[in-house]
Amino acid sequence: MTIVHEPAASRFIxxxxxxxxxxxxxxxxxRVLFTHTFVPPQARGLGIAEALVRTALxxxxxxxxxxxxxxxxxxxxxxxxxxxxxx
Length: 87
Hints:
Elements (H helix, E strand, L loop, with lengths): L1 E5 L4 E6 L2 E10 L2 E8 L9 H15 L3 E4 L2 H9 L7
Parallel strand pairs: 4-5
Antiparallel strand pairs: 1-2, 2-3, 3-4
């Protein structure tokens, strides 16, 4: 899988086979809000969402952004990996 950051569209795209997965976000100053994660049904269970979220959180960390999430997947991921986020 290839993960591409598309800042103009406020998303990370995971390209896997013919199906794109994504994590969307919005920026507000030094805060990033992760709003949506999507993986097509036929690609679920392969670790794609985790790879996307890890990449997005690493980007947030590299850019000193405080992380918040309204996406339920990202919320649960952060609960399991609090060391990966700046709040």
